[in-house]
Amino acid sequence: MIVQWRKSSYSGGVNDEQCVELGRLASEAGIGARDSKDPDGGHLTLSFAQFAGLVEQVKQYPTR
């Protein structure tokens, strides 16, 4: 399976040094997260439940 990585819509563009990409891994493997500036550097694998928990924590983080 080829993973289709998607960059965050909050990324600031080409010069943004803090970019994250997400991709749905094989059917039951979960969600992958990687550094868009180093796509060959590997990725973090999260279960669907872990990813949902991460999203909830991010939503509670105060914005600037």
Automatic annotation (TrEMBL):
Domain of life: Bacteria
Domain DUF397: 3-59
Pfam families noted in UniProt: DUF397
The name this protein goes by in its record: DUF397 domain-containing protein
Organism for this UniProt entry: Actinomadura chokoriensis
